[in-house]
Every structure is written in C-alpha cells, then in structure tokens.
Design brief:
Blueprint: H1 2-9, E1 17-21, H2 27-36, E2 41-46, E3 57-61, H3 69-76, E4 79-84, H4 94-115, E5 116-127, H5 132-142, E6 143-149, E7 160-168
Parallel strand pairs: 1-2, 1-4, 2-3, 4-5
Antiparallel strand pairs: 5-7, 6-7
C-alpha cells in the first residue's frame, strides 16, 4: 500500500530520513529503506520486533505513547517523512474501531508535528468514519496539501484509508 501511494504521489526520495511508526512486521520499513538508498535512513519503532534489517535501518522496540520528543529529537534529529501504518485491534464495531484508529493516527500526527522538517511529509492509516473530516482539517493546518487515498489493493468494503500530508508548514 505504501508502494502504491509512492507510485501515485512520489513522496519518498533518495537520501531522505524517514520515521516509521508502528513498523512491524516491516514491509513499509523495507520498502522505504530501498527507496531512500544507502545515503538515507529509516528509524522504525514498534512494540514488536521487525522481520527486516539493513544498513540504513535502525529499529527501536518501544511504545510510541512513551516517546519523549525532546530525547528523541536529541538522538535522531528531524525527519523528512513520518509514516504510520498503525491500526487498532478491530472490535467489529465500526464506530469504536474508527475512534481507536484516529487515536493512533492523532498520536502519530503529534509526533510528526514535532519531528518533521519544514516541507516534510506525513502518511498515515485511518479508518473511515464520522470524525475523519475533522482530523483531515487538523492536518490541513500543518500541511500545504492533504490527500485522502484508498489503495486499489484495499478490499472494496474495507474502511481502511490513508491521509497524505505534504509540505509541512513552518
């Protein structure tokens, strides 16, 4: 799904520094690592171990809700792109699953606002629901462009979508 978005929008570039939140099992990390190449870097965070590794990948086993932004910035600096494929364990209740997905996306967005360079990109998974338009408006305050993307590889009945914020404002 990341590759499909990249093919459509071209937001990952050689040499970039990428923060991948909720990275396990690692398919997005692996793909991003290939795109950014040896001059780039992917810092991947998750509660669970990654199944991929590489010279330009650094994995940190952590809960993203326990990250202290000041310490994180001191260690890693700023990023060009923040990715989040995080999704809640689904309950079968669309309203609850939607709320939980926005809670994860909202936290990823807060991390992005503190770690993205000017002009940076934020790409995150969300579940469709009534609060999605207001979350999208929040992103529009921080990014010049915000697109809602449903990959062709997603099932038709799936509520899974992605938000792409480009051009982080100062």
């Amino acid at each position: 799904k990341l590759q499909e978005a990249q093919n459509k929008y071209g937001f990952l570039k050689r040499g970039q520094r990428i923060l991948d939140l909720g990275a396990a099992p690692g398919s997005w990390t692996k793909y991003a690592s290939r795109v950014v190449g040896p001059q780039g870097k992917v810092v991947a965070l998750d509660l669970h171990r990654l199944r991929v590794n590489g010279p330009n990948i650094e994995f940190i086993k952590t809960d993203i809700f326990s990250i202290l932004p000041e310490e994180f910035l001191e260690k890693f600096g700023m990023f060009n792109v923040v990715l989040s494929d995080m999704a809640p364990k689904t309950s079968g209740r669309k309203d609850l699953d939607h709320f939980r997905s926005l809670e994860l996306a909202g936290h990823a967005f807060r991390i992005a606002t503190m770690t993205l360079d000017q002009g940076g990109v934020f790409f995150c998974k969300v579940f469709e629901g009534e609060d999605l338009p207001s979350f999208r408006k929040e992103l529009q305050v921080f990014f010049r462009s915000v697109k809602l993307f449903k990959p062709k590889s997603s099932r038709t009945e799936s509520v899974e979508k992605f938000l792409l914020g480009r051009g982080r404002k100062v």
